[in-house]
Amino acid sequence: MSDDGVRVDKWLWAARFFKTRRLATEAIQGGKVELNDSRAKPAKLVRPGDELRVRKDAYEFHIIVRDLSDKRGPAKVAESLYEETSESIARREETREQLKAQNAAFPLPKHRPDKHDRKQLARFKRNTE
């Protein structure tokens, strides 16, 4: 690791935002990562004080880089590499609540349909068409 910076794909992997460097690189190339309010490239160097926006699934993280690492370590160490803004935390919590409410409207069945259930479904589909 050099003192002047670490590749953004390595840093995202080390900070445990992505499980592999390949996933981090694909996210960066797909426009899901912004470095200091501009689109990032995988080889761009990240330094302490830089701001990153990472969109992952339905969530967006707005973080400030506090420390550098190009090695993936324990989760506690990874958490010390960045600081998430309070607005970002609030937005993620709001999104989490929305998704939770949305999923509550469509509960999952308790079990897979058995033979009787499948016949009922087939009968229902035939009558609605």
Automatic annotation (TrEMBL):
InterPro entries: HSP15, S4_RNA-bd, S4_RNA-bd_sf. Residues 6-60 form the RNA-binding S4 domain. Keywords: DNA-binding, RNA-binding, Stress response. GO terms for biological process: cellular response to heat. It comes from the Bacteria. GO terms for molecular function: DNA binding; ribosomal large subunit binding; single-stranded RNA binding. Residues 83-129 are annotated as: Disordered. Residues 89-99, 114-129 have a biased composition (Basic and acidic residues). The keyword Iron-sulfur does not apply. The keyword Cell division does not apply. Belongs to the HSP15 family. This is Heat shock protein 15. It comes from Aquisalimonas asiatica.
